[in-house]
Amino acid sequence: MTTAPEIREPRSTSVTGRIAPQYKRSGGPKGQFEMLAWLFMRLSGIVLVVLIFGHLFVNLMVGQGVHGIDFGFVAGKWASPFWQVWDLAMLWLAMLHGSNGVRTIINDYAERDSVRFWLKAVLFAASAIIVILGTLVIFTFDPCPVVNGVRTVADYCPAS
């Protein structure tokens, strides 16, 4: 007759069934940061759903739909400060939300401290570059550029 294999206790509990001291949550600064990061993920997810569905509705349902999206459509949208702020909020929240999620995955799966450090450094650098470049594009976009010293005039550009 064979005996069933013994099931070991989880690492986080001691023999008495209580949580081992090294696994207890602390109310220190790191615990507070992780709680705020967790809360940010939930709240930013809700706001992102509203922003993204609003973006999709305006781009795909209003006017000519997907067939009307071209350079002029984007130029017309970004001529309004409302749509600049809308797209900026969507960019910033999406990048922060995604970066926070990837940061959590790195913390969970990168075992060595040096690997964890460099992965997060690359993540934060890439996120910062994308946010900075995206913000610059949104606020410095000029639909009527000067080409070879001549200001191009299209139907959506004011007469110069």
Mean pLDDT figure: 83
So, CATH architecture? Answer: Up-down Bundle
User: pLDDT below 50 for ≥5 consecutive residues: which ranges?
Assistant: none
Determine the strand fraction and express it as a percent band: under 5%
Class inferred from helices and paired strands: mainly alpha
CATH level-four homologous superfamily name: Fumarate reductase/succinate dehydrogenase, transmembrane subunit
**Molecular shape:** elongated
Can you put this structure into words, describing what you see?
It is a single chain. By secondary structure, this protein is mainly alpha-helical. It has a single domain (27-148), classed as Fumarate reductase/succinate dehydrogenase, transmembrane subunit (3 helical TM bundles of succinate and fumarate reductases, Up-down Bundle). Helix content is 61%, strand content 2%. The protein has 4 helices and 2 strands, in the order ααααββ. Strands 1-2 form a two-stranded antiparallel ribbon. Helix 1 packs across helix 3 and helix 3 (81-109) runs antiparallel to helix 4 (113-140). The longest helix has 32 residues, at 29-60. The protein is elongated. The termini are far apart.
Set down the secondary structure blueprint.
Blueprint: H1 29-60, H2 71-78, H3 81-109, H4 113-140, E1 146-147, E2 150-151
Antiparallel strand pairs: 1-2
Features:
elongated, Succinate dehydrogenase, metal-binding, 3 helical TM bundles of succinate and fumarate reductases, 61% helix, two-stranded antiparallel sheet, mainly alpha, 160 residues, iron
